[in-house]
Structures are given as C-alpha cells and as structure tokens.
C-alpha cells in the first residue's frame, strides 16, 4: 500500500474514533448537533495487524478534539442570522450551542513579562490584627505554566483588630505581643505555576480565558507592634488626641503560599483575584531596639530625671523615641516606657498567618 | 567537580550558580511536569463543546457541610440539606435547612476562666458576636451567570458554574456568656459548673454561665462554584456568610449577676454578627 493512501485511511479512522468517543450529552438537554458526523471514506483496507512506525502513526486525538481538520463544519440553518455571528471565534448566539468555548488558548504566556498592581490587599483572617495595603508583583513566565516572581507588599494600614481592643476594654485581656505583630512591608522572590486553565462565558455573551495560579515565595518583612492605642490627653484643661504609637520589632523571615485566578482580557491585560497566606515568624524581645534591661534602665532614669544618653544602653536601643514631649499633643513620651517594658517583659513568639485577599490587574508584554 | 577551598571564592560562586541553575530549572520542570501535557495542549486545539449538563427546569437536592472560615469566640460546623428548582440554567430558587454544631473556642473558654478571678473589673459590657446559630432555614436565589470549562492537566475537562447566592430565613440562636456566671464554684480556678474533677471540664453536667436563646431573622449570601461530575451530579464549593443582628448587654455589674439578678441594659447599637463559612456540598439534579 502506498504510504499516502495508508495515511489517509489512518486519519479517517482516527477521526471516526474521536467522534465515537465524544460523550453524547443527555437527550433531554442535548443541543442539536452543529456539525454532522463525518462518514469515513469507504475503503477495503483493513487495519494493520502490526504496529506501524511511529512516524507514520497519526496522533491519538483527544475525545474533544476539534473537527476542524476534517474540513469546514456545516452549521445547521438557523432563522436568526445573528446566530452565526462569531464572538471570539465561537457562535455564542447560536441557540443550538448552549455554550461553545473557543478551542485553543488564545494567549500564550511563555517568555512574557507581567507586572501586576494590587491596589487593594486586605487581610481576611485577622483575629488580633488588621492589615490593608497594596502590592506590586513582577512575573517572568519562563514557560507557559511556570514563572519566576518577585513581589512586594506595603501595608498602609496595620493595627490591632477591634476585637483585640474589645478584649482589652471589656475583660482586660489581650493577645500576646507576638500574636499581634504587625507587618509593615514585605519583599519576596518565588515561583508561580499555572497548572490549570479554562474558559468561561458570562451569559453566553462574553468569552474569557482564565488560569488557576499557584505561587509561593520567601523573603523578609518589616514588623511592628502596637505600644499604645490612640488616647486622649488632658493638659491644662485642653484635650488632645494622641495617635496610636507603634514600636519597631525588626525584620523577620517571610514566606508565602497562595493561589487564585487570572482572567485575561486581550493580549496584554489580565485581572487577578488571589488569596495569599503570608507566614512570618514572630518573636518580640525588643521594641525600638530596646530589650528588657534597657527598659529597666530607662524606667529607673525616668524616676530620677536622669538623661537617657548616659545610661549605657545597648547600641540598638532608640531611646530618643521614649524621651521628650510631643509639642502638638503635649504627650510625654517617657510615659510609654512602661508600656514598652510590658511588651518585652514576657518575650513571646508565634508563627503568624496573614491571609489576605489580593485584587489587581496585570500588564503583560 | 567538588567544591572546596581550591576554588577561588569568585569562581566558586560562579560554579555554584552554574551548577544550581540547571538544578533549579530541572526542579521547576518537575514541579510542572504534571501540567506539561496540558501545556502541550494549550496551544493545540482543544475543543470544548456543549454544556455537560443543563439544569434548566430541573429539581435539585443537595447536602453540604460548612466549616468555619474564621473563628473568634465561637465556632460553627454547619450541616445543611437543600432543595432547589432551576428555572433557567442561570437562575434557581433554593430552600436550605440545617443545624449548626457550635461551641466556644479555646479563647472564649480562657477568657471566661480568667475573668472569673479578675477583681479589677466590676462593671463591664458583654462581649460582641457571642450568639451561636443552631437550627436554621433559609430560602434564596442562586444566580449563575458564568458557565465555564477547566482543563484538568491532560485530556479531562471540568465543567463548572460560578454563582452568587442570596436569601434569608429564620434561625434559632443561643448565647452563653463568658462574663456572667450566676453561681461561682471556684473563682481562682475559674470554675462555673458542677464538674466533679476541677481539672476536667468534661466531667460537668450543668453550667452556671448565663444563657440566652432567641429566634431571629437571618440573611445569608454566598459566592461559589459548582462542578458537574456527570449527568445530575455536582460538587459545590462556596464561601458563605450568615448574618444576623447581635444582642448583648452593657454596664452589667458583677455583684448583681453573681446574685442571679438581672443586670445592665441592652446595647443600643449592637451591630451585626457574621458567620463566615467555607461550604463543601454535593448536589443531585433530577
């Protein structure tokens, strides 16, 4: 048999098999087939008894393989000409097609750069803490399903939760300092995989392509702890609102895992909806660089009116933050020494999970 | 080549980078190996044709389990059964009823024990969001404008709907205080029940914490996905919020409540309590 004739037979047989393997939709709901079944060409050649060389075998078509290779599909006549209008290559308005999704991924990611801005990053699991911020991610898609990622997050709001303040107010209880550690910013490097992709139609009118993304990374983050909540300061009959005071607790190791959806609009834009868990170690034994011994010295000096610069504090202790009077609110910062001392008097440690929702948009190029 | 002192530092870094880069890339490739075949298909034609199943004008029964998405002072494990009628592929009316197994969290128990021994807080307010939902029934609409298909690694395709759910109904609520103990058994140990073993709270058969119950309107909303397995079978994953009005008392006095007397006044603006749950469910469409 001539190779070309055999190849034609094999292709026909493969197509017929693919059509037979396509699961039929339920009869009650099955739309009218848009494409008539193809009759395999008549042949008197039976299937080969022995395996053929690989280079002559046709690839096995998946069960939902397109029929385009068998020639132009013959759509059934429809009364509404609008039904034939293609939306992203699919006759979404054809009543015979309940949902028809385009057949191939329209946009490839491999070798592309992606910048994602998340204007809103909101913590969703805050029991003792509340965080809200913004993030910027850069992803280089090394291949279609795998990318390298650099991410940065800045929390423009980070404070103890109302729930924690309620506990303090009503039952005189509060979370340990480590459990209420606040993340100011974080920077990470990691990877992102897109193992799944799909397409969906909104009311059969708009067809969009999306990917499930999973990512992970590691880096560092800057943390702080609430020393004193916002209070009212009464001086000489005047009332001043003193803003909350936070103490620096240093940079910590930061890890993250996350996942979500990336919905692509056109070739160069995408919408991302993700949930990411920032995990960071928390141990609070210094506040603004001062340890317990430093705070003890500061407290003793506060009582005697001694200058803090002569106390022989550790080099990292920023004693200036606990000295002086705020000219605007007339708050004496020395009053905060005892609060700082309380935070470090019982060194606490925890591993915190900051689960946040990320909503943003991407530009790909 | 072994790395050692014989290699100059700058070269050693170069060698390490050169050695690690292929390993890293290899690791990356292994990580995505499962999706490699899918990647092949990404750029190949992969037709998806029709809805796997059309629920329009069909009745639907479902069961689901709800797990707490976040826990403060209470935790709920919600068991639900539902019956729905799909008017269209995109719109259904659903009735759900169920019972939520609820409990105090460890944090609530810890607060109750320590507060019993605290002498510096004679007058206080009850804590918010302490109501636990038990029996409940709601009716709502499910709007599923999105129908999609998801490539699962290789040749398999999952069909799904994404939907929003909104509705309301009634719920029976129960509130056990962690502040007001009507009969203090051991203040130092924080015991307010009839336990026989001071170190084992499970040995108690009766609690003396103040308990309130009520029926209240409840609203619920959800966002979720419904994956069609085959004809008539579907798996549901949704994030659901149960919302009802909170009620608690303020300015309650220890001396009064410990004598078993009514104390305090209702909070003027108690707000709303949200129970956010992650639901996993199964549906059968007749």
UniProtKB/TrEMBL annotation, chain A:
<keyword id="KW-0732">Signal</keyword>
<dbReference type="InterPro" id="IPR030820">
    <property type="entry name" value="OMP_myx_plus_Proteobacteria"/>
</dbReference>
<feature type="signal peptide">
    <location>
        <begin position="1"/>
        <end position="18"/>
    </location>
</feature>
<dbReference type="InterPro" id="IPR011250">
    <property type="entry name" value="OMP/PagP_B-barrel"/>
</dbReference>
<protein>
    <recommendedName>
        <fullName>Outer membrane beta-barrel domain-containing protein</fullName>
    </recommendedName>
</protein>
<feature type="region of interest" description="Disordered">
    <location>
        <begin position="16"/>
        <end position="90"/>
    </location>
</feature>
């Amino acid at each position: 048999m001539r190779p070309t004739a055999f190849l034609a037979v094999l292709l026909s047989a493969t197509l017929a098999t693919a059509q037979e393997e396509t699961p039929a939709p339920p009869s009650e709901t099955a739309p009218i087939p848009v494409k008539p079944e193809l009759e395999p060409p008549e042949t008197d050649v039976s299937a080969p008894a022995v395996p053929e060389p690989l280079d002559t075998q046709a690839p096995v078509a998946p069960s939902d393989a397109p029929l385009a290779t068998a020639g132009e599909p013959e759509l059934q006549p429809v009364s509404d000409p609008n039904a034939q209008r293609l939306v992203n290559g699919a006759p979404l308005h054809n009543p015979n097609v309940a949902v028809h999704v385009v057949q191939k991924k329209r946009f490839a990611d491999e070798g592309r750069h992606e910048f994602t801005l998340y204007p809103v990053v909101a913590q969703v699991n805050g029991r003792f803490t509340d965080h809200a911020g913004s993030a910027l991610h850069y992803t280089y898609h090394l291949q279609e399903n795998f990318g390298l990622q650099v991410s940065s997050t800045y929390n423009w709001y980070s404070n103890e939760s109302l729930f924690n303040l309620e506990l303090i107010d009503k039952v005189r209880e509060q979370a340990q300092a480590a459990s209420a550690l606040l993340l100011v910013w974080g920077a990470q490097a990691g990877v992102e995989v897109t193992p799944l992709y799909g397409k969906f139609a909104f009311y059969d009118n708009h067809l969009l392509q999306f990917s499930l993304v999973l990512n992970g990374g590691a880096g560092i983050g800057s943390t702080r702890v609430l020393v004193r909540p916002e209070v009212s300061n009464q001086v000489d009959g005047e009332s001043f609102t003193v803003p909350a005071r936070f103490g620096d607790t240093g940079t910590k190791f930061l890890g993250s895992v996350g996942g979500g959806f990336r919905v692509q609009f056109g070739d160069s834009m995408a919408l991302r909806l993700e949930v990411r868990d920032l995990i960071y170690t928390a141990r609070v034994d210094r506040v603004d660089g001062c340890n317990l011994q430093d705070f003890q010295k500061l407290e003793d000096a506060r009582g005697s009116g001694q200058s803090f610069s002569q106390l022989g504090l550790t080099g990292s202790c920023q004693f200036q933050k606990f000295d002086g009077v705020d000219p605007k609110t007339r708050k004496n910062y020395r009053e905060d020494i005892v609060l700082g001392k309380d935070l470090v008097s019982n060194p606490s440690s925890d591993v915190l999970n900051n689960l946040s929702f990320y909503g943003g948009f991407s530009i790909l190029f | 080549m072994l790395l050692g002192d014989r290699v100059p530092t700058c070269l050693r870094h170069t060698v390490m980078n050169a050695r690690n880069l292929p390993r890293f890339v290899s690791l990356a490739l292994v990580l995505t190996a499962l999706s490699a075949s899918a990647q092949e298909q990404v750029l190949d034609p992969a037709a998806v044709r029709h809805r796997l199943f059309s629920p329009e004008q069909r009745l639907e029964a479902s069961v689901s389990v709800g797990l707490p998405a976040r826990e403060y002072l209470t935790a709920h494990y919600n068991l639900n059964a539902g019956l729905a009628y799909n008017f269209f592929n995109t719109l259904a009316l659903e009735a759900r009823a169920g019972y939520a197994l609820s409990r105090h969290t460890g944090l609530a128990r810890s607060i109750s024990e320590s507060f019993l021994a605290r002498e510096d807080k004679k007058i206080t307010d009850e804590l918010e969001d302490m109501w636990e939902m038990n029996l409940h029934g709601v009716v709502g609409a499910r709007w599923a404008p999105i129908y999609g298909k998801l490539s699962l690694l290789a040749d398999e395709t999952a069909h799904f709907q994404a939907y929003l759910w909104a509705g309301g109904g009634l719920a029976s609520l129960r509130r056990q205080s962690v502040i007001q103990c009507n009969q203090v058994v051991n203040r130092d140990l924080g015991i307010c029940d009839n336990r026989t073993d001071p170190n084992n709270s499970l040995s108690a058969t009766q609690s003396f914490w103040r308990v309130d119950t009520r029926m209240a309107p409840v609203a619920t909303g959800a966002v979720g996905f419904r994956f069609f397995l085959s004809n008539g079978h579907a798996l549901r994953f949704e994030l659901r919020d149960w919302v009802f009005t909170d009620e608690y008392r303020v300015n309650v006095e220890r001396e009064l409540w410990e004598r078993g007397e009514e104390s305090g006044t209702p909070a003027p603006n108690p707000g709303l309590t949200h129970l956010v749950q992650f639901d996993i469910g199964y549906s059968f469409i007749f």
